[in-house]
Amino acid sequence: EKGGFEHFMLKEIFEQPKSIKDCFRGRLIANDGKLVLGGIREYANALTNANRIVIVACGTSWHAGLVAEYIFEEFCRIPVEVEYASEFRYRNPIISEGDIVIAISQSGETADTLAAMELAKSKGAIVLGVCNVVGSSISRVSHEGVYTHAGPEIGVASTKAFTAQLTVLTMIALRVAHRKGTMAEQRYRSLLAELETIPAKVEKALKTDDQVKKIAELFKDARNFLYLGRGYNFPVALEGALKLKEISYIHAEGYPAAEMKHGPIALIDEEMPVVVIATRDSSYDKIVSNIQEVKARKGKVIAIVSEGDSLIPTMVDFTIEVPGTHDALMPMVATIPLQLLSYHIAVMRGCNVDQPRNLAKSVTVE
Ligand code: F6R
């Protein structure tokens, strides 16, 4: 059942080229410039004309929401707020007419997310679901929604569900941007074509496995890790840190790279591994200076870079290359080596990667 893999988590990491493809199969028709999202038909207009989008989720799904915030704001010019479901539900949130709430959940059973949706509904919001489990409570409570179709995720640490969530959210944003006219036709077409190449790029990113394993060997006994990213890669840093914490029990923090100088930089010394997601995008020059700041304090830098980067490898201790893509799609590719890094470190530390202590696959209690 693990398909020859030692753990479900590793199987699910390696399934991602397929699960992403399954997610857009029948929906993304790049040649015709078409996106068919049957799950949001009735509310497609409401979404296009939304004054505001509020995303509610927990954990990894909340990280997917953060990426979606950047995507919706850039593509659709709709203001987005991303809320922890547990915070949203307990503070009498302001919901106005024309607000759309999107709930993101792999299991579709997360108690706080479900309660946040019920609350938003009671205040008159239209609630859409992005869910992996067909027929789950969250899918039933939402007005409409889009399934991620990543297949069953058994490992407690979410991997393929995350990249499928990103795929769905990107498709929704592209659909809305196209309807709304906030994205030029040519750019829309090129993004559809680029989205179609992501499974192959993820496949290539998976080829870093051996190299990542060697790095894992060197850092498996670290007590702390920092993960830094900017722009679209900031949520990737948060997600990388969460993956490491939950399965290897190493303390890790994700930060927007520029925030480092406002506090966390005090932690950096030769003992501190710092994973920097530094792919070539619009914040590239800025992240290069953040790397310099870490190196000046003797931190050990592991950088995730775009293929062919010749500058960063001269500055850092280790580089892992991933194929380049559009800034907004990079999280799907850049997250792969971080999943592998946490997996290998956890295995080397003798941890139960598929069922980490204190964690459950679906959190049905608040
Ligand atoms: C992290 C993880 C959790 C879940 C969170 C939300 O790897 O698995 O943080 O992402 O409990 O779960 P869902 O998406 O099922 O609502």
What report would you give on this structure?
The chain has 366 residues and is of the alpha/beta class. It has 13 helices and twelve strands. The protein has helices spanning 8-14, 16-24, 44-48, 59-76, 85-88, 111-122, 137-141, 160-180, 185-206, 209-219, 234-248, 284-296, 330-348, and strands at residues 28-29, 34-35, 52-57, 80-84, 99-105, 126-131, 144-147, 224-229, 251-256, 273-277, 300-306, 318-322. A five-stranded parallel beta sheet has the order 4-3-5-6-7, sandwiched between helices. The protein has a five-stranded parallel beta sheet with strand order 9-8-10-11-12, with helices on both faces. Strands 1-2 form a two-stranded antiparallel sheet. α12 links the parallel β10 and β11 (300-306). α2 packs antiparallel against α9 (185-206), α4 (59-76) packs antiparallel against α11 and α11 (234-248) packs parallel to α13. The longest helix is centred in the middle third of the chain and has 22 residues, at 185-206. The chain is globular, with a radius of gyration of 20 Å. The chain starts with 7 loop residues before the first helix and ends in an 18-residue tail after the last helix. The model has no long low-confidence stretch (mean pLDDT 96). Fructose -6-phosphate (F6R) is lined by residues 58-61, 105-107, 110, 113, 156-158, 242, 246, 362-363. It catalyses: D-fructose 6-phosphate + L-glutamine = D-glucosamine 6-phosphate + L-glutamate. Keywords: Aminotransferase, Cytoplasm, Glutamine amidotransferase, Repeat, Transferase. Homodimer. It is found in: Cytoplasm. One of its GO terms (biological process) is fructose 6-phosphate metabolic process.
